[in-house]
């Protein structure tokens, strides 16, 4: 029997947007283009390997017939495509990325019960909950850290899959520190004063990412100290501020993210939810930023022993971000990490090798 690997995503691959796991898989699929025999997603680059499958909107009233809606409408493309691919003569490894409802639909379809099918879940959040009937059909779950794994088993009465830890990884070819001269050149493009300390925020503008908390904290900091510039990266939302030192650069391509982080000095990760291991945080850290981060989720485990990190105890309270910044301001100004040391922190290769070994 030949082994066939199938990658299943509700986000189009390859992906051009700022993302977390999408960046990992973009690079992996480019470097190992024949590792997965099929990639099912709402792709813009459809061919014999990358097959177009789209997650459809839930029909009205579907809460009364969820199982049927999952099978016959929401995940119809995925299930029909899988049924065409999966035969009786080969072995199949199905890897579902970060969509527990899609995973459940595959289980309910009966595909995972076939003797020649192994179902694997690649989870990129903090924790999730599912029925025992789902876990019984999943052979492995990939987590970003031990805190995520432990939180998930606490959430579920029974959890039977094998667990593999695939840590956060960042591409050293794109995210790295730059010399002062290049940093100055990058700043001049945005008319940022040479002597300013640059505070950055990088995320999408969902409320739970804390953009409103960040803007209020930035305004409070600028009331006290004016030799600071603030960059908001990734938000399409109109920023309610009249302070010209707060610059909203909007949504940017992932390939442009490094230059913004390289001109920055400190990143505020104002997330208001427990996260598995935000890629933006690791990317900023690799670019030499001091980071302010909530003391919750997997982040306190990932960053507890690193230099250049300050934990915020109460992330929903604006004054806690302001006070933490001023408490560590001198340390932030002195923080000049060696790029060679940062290369060994959160390496992409660790995640890549873990994935290759797991599959």
UniProtKB/TrEMBL annotation:
CDD domains linked to this entry: GT4_PimA-like
This protein's record includes keyword Transferase: yes
Alphabetized GO MF terms: glycosyltransferase activity
Highest taxon, organism lineage: Bacteria
Keyword terms, alphabetized: Transferase
Domain Glycosyl transferase family, residue spans: 184-314
Name under which the protein is recorded: Glycosyl transferases group 1
